[in-house]
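Our preliminary data section would be incomplete without showing what the modeling component actually yields. Below, a chain of 107 amino acids is followed by its predicted structure, encoded as tokens that our downstream tools consume directly.
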Amino acid sequence: MNPFELESALIDLLKDSIVNNVPHGVLIRRIRREVLKLSQDRYAALAGISRRTLSDIEQDKESVTLSTLNRAFKPLGLKLGLLPRQTHMMRALLTQLTQPGESHDHP
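Predicted structure:
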């Protein structure tokens, strides 16, 4: 998969995750399997977490910390954040973030 296909697949899964309230664990498992085609061992090593921790994340176990979740998503260029639940608020936020002439690429 070339970088453009990879980015497109990732965006599609993120969109599905937001629209259908897909749990974080399901999302990361789908990205790992369907997009990256990596084993749990390989992805865990890439993320700097144990395979057991990745397994707990993919099973949406409640004992996983926010810090650990962010480490798991970091190799994908993602971090956890807050999004409005109501569709109209989500659209308004996205519209504001994509206004021309403004840079939103902040570290």
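The radius of gyration is 15 Å. The chain has one domain: 3-80. Preliminary results of this kind motivate Aim 1 of the renewal.
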